[in-house]
Amino acid sequence: MPLQYQDQVNLLKDILSNHQTDCCGSVSECEQLERLIKSLMVNSNIDQNNKQVLGQIYDYSQSGINSSNLDAHIESHQQQLSEWVGNIDQLS
Predict the structure, then answer these.
(1) CA neighbor of 83 nearest in space, from 13, 11, 8
(2) Sorting pLDDT into bands at 50, 70 and 90, what band is 1?
(3) Domain ranges of the chain
């Protein structure tokens, strides 16, 4: 059963919030971020500014998947994670 729009936004925010607060994560979480963003990007109700933020998060998740040290990757993006979590409220 596919996730509804609001559920996708909530899951996106939860994963990013966990990365921000825990400074660690898993490759499967990064893969889940990619799937969520791909699904959200096709939504016509999301404006261009929010799509740009989603693109940044997508790049972050891709880099995380390919990182040899995921925790260090997450730690190096703490500022962006904070900004993204704040921006996600605009998607709700």
Answers:
(1) 13
(2) low
(3) 5-91
